[in-house]
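Bench log, entry 3. Co-assembly request; chain sequences pasted below exactly as received.
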Amino acid sequence: MGAIYLWWIGGGEVEERLMEEVRAQVERVLRYPARVWTSPERPVDTLDPARGQHLSTRILRWLLAARPPEADRVVAVTDVDLFIPVLTFVFGEAQLRGSAAVVSTARLRSNPGAPSADPRVVTARVAKECIHELGHTFGLIHCDDPRCVMARSVSVPQVDAKGGALCRDCRIRLEESRREVGGPHG
Amino acid sequence: MDNRKTRILVVDDEEIVRESMAGWLEKDGYTVATAPDGPTAVERLRAEPWSILLVDLKMPGMDGLGVLEEARKLRPDAVVVIMTAYATVDTAVTAMKMGAFDYLVKPFDPEELSLLTQKIVAQQALARENILLRKVLKREYRFRDLLSNSPKMHAVFDLARVAARSHSTILVQGESGTGKELLARAIHVESPRSTGPFVAVSCAALTETLLESELFGHEKGAFTGAVSRRKGKFEAAHGGTLFLDEIGDVSPKLQLDLLRVLEERRFSRVGGTESIQVDVRIIAATNRDLKKALEDGRFREDLYYRLNVIPITLPPLRQRREDLPLLVEHFLEHLGVELGRKLEAVSAEGMRLLTAHDWPGNVRELRNVLERAAVVASGPILDVADLGLLEVHTEERQGSEGLASLEEVERRHIAEVLRRTGGNVSHAARILGIDRVTLYSKIKRYELRKEPESGT
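Structure output for the full assembly:
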């Protein structure tokens, strides 16, 4: 049976505890086997020197080529700040109904107007964003329910405000998407 | 409103911009397409309708202002947003003067783009709701408002369109809830009498005396309670169309009165002597088998032939199951407006239930089921549990409501046996205890081969 692979592709040291905690959350919420994957490979040519940020769309392209073939889906976690050309930043990006996603911890570590965030809070944020981006790979779009993990969040307070689980409607959509594409059922 | 109906065209000469922007917007559920330059954008504008255009200002060849100019001409309803770098803000202001909705300075905050698209979508939804409400209020339905992908229904529309142009009397037959009045209204609107009134009377709702007075009016003192002279529906419909619903329920006396009006186009008010002439087009409708009523002596033969000039039969919903997705979408949009809620879709499992149901109450029943589901559902997706009524299938219903005729039970049973035998007619005939020829004739009669549930 395939699984979701979580892959640390950051410049800094891999945070094993964070990755393990996120893996467990992903598996629980999406009801899909997930494992942490380690590999020294890192994406190249994704940095925009003028902006000092990495282009997430390029990281996705790289992931599609570099991901382990046995992975159903891969979500990369990085510590660099991400952007797409027209936007100032993005927390992450995913292919809608695809198999790759990327999430940055850079802005999720910050705590607007306060000292750096508690590691447990950061872990919760990263887990929410990983589940959110993976949800897109299952065809889920943004949800109007502000408590749902699929609610759009474009600021850290918005990430904190939403829950870490799927609402009823998104659970139905996820199940339907699974039935269409096959794969493990929860 | 379902975001998929919002169609966004991203116009930018940089591929990475198009790709990332389209990806970002698709995740809000919008339908997104891209164009790499001005001329391609204009081509796409010409070919399809668009709700929003996000256009880069600086492009080689035709620039963003050129696209804006063409968009104003080709799709005046489409909202154009110009994307620009800081250095060209002055031009962006010019764009606003030329009719752009807004401009975004690159790179923009994700929140800014999110709020802008939400604002545009909300405005467009409001405009659409206005149109919809006006239509509901005026009840001016045209053939294009009657939704169907079914060839049977399209044959009905073709006939009705031709009939609309004539002045001949039309008899619409069909089960309860198939949309007989809606069809009658569409015929009226598309007839040369469309500027005249459309007057509907339900012949089954009133007693003989009341219906007589309702149709022909009465003079003061004609009967107890007739305190003043009152015009009837025939007079009210002068110059327009009179829709006589449930004509099969009319008493023998009124059948004779109606026959006279149809023959002479004149009548007198109840209690009056003055002969009144009217110019009225009659559309009669019934859910009863008028031919049978004729044979049983319950309906006058001469009136039947007067009414049956152009017969139109509306098929029941179970014979046009392919229309379910279209009708569901239509009703969810209407119910969303009526209930002031976002209703997106029925879940796939729910759709399977809807498709399996036999719909004895036809489209009206479908609407009621969806309305109930919309009220009880907690989110925008209506799931199996919300469609509660359907889980209690006809077999388990209490009382006499919705009970099927012997013929209907036979049809369902044959369909079920065929489904379980994988469409094997010989096997099915053996189980049913009839010969193959009889089964074939029943399959043909009930049109089971066309239905997915027959498994044939």
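The two ends of chain B are 38 Å apart (CA to CA). Residues 149 and 323 of chain B are 6 Å apart (CA to CA).
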